[in-house]
């Protein structure tokens, strides 16, 4: 793991910032950003901060998969390594990593905690300790090809069954017309945290609950959950490619952005990338709340990322200053305008420049605000095992290795065992 970090820094040495004139208080700060892809704004912002403050900054890329990223962080922090000072952490990780993170209240500049969405600040406060500042928030969305819906006189589906029927009809018609690469629906089907978020949306929107309820009771084994998973499994090889069982966010985006899918489930960041000049779908797609099951309600899994400082940092105050900079209004506004990321500051949802660049941000404010959380708080440090059980059993059902009924029965047993050991 140390070798991975050292290699990452060396590979990105062109991004490491070494000011020509360093002050006596200059420090070397290493920040664990995203995966270094097109949507990773972290290196750019770190460069701006370093240039303004005269510090060395090393950029470390981390795995695209949140599951792999968490494993890396747990190894890093578990060894009390000083290799990384600032970490980008998922919304479900504060409780897991809190013991290894500083209380930002002790280091942040005055006013740095003002103006955030209160629920996100509450999420990042563990036993009275503020362990992270919110950077951007997410909720799952349905992307659709408006031009294809218009061509085939179809509306935006409000139920999962309607999505299935519409996707199948348009896929078949497009393939008969010569577009053999067209698929009806792409999503995140790989066995990782992203599949947990998808499964939660399918199941909760069918009225099947959230795997574990707010009291810590396992609720997954019910007819609505089986119905939701059975429908999702039926997509693979029909309206979804066989390979969807290995898709993460970027694989799904690649298919949709290339013009080869009617519908896609993904996060808000895809909007700006799909509307970029020269993309095959520019001006041809829209976004809407996700569908729901019969008698259910649309459900979007709450996502998002935050900035934290390692307790083993040699420069916690300087690292906290970088965190404050990254999450400040100006940087969040730039993040929203340039990448379509949903801010964690309510006032930016009414900002004219943000709304001009991405009108859907204002329209989806309620979706983001009402996103449903994964059962991370109630399951505490057991959450990685809970999520692993969910995505592995769901993946088995999608792959046809077990029936949806068998997958849910096995998941129920696994979660019950974890619950008996104590969340």
TrEMBL record:
Protein's UniProt keywords contain Manganese: no
Matches recorded under InterPro entries: Bact_solute-bd_prot1, SBP
Annotated signal peptide: 1-26
Keyword Signal: yes
Protein location: Periplasm
Any single GO CC term annotated in Swiss-Prot or TrEMBL for this entry: periplasmic space
UniProt entry keywords in alphabetical sequence: Signal, Transport
Principal subcellular localisation of the protein: periplasm
Family: Belongs to the bacterial solute-binding protein 1 family.
Record protein name field: ABC transporter substrate-binding protein
Taxonomic classification: Bacteria, Pseudomonadati, Pseudomonadota, Gammaproteobacteria, Oceanospirillales
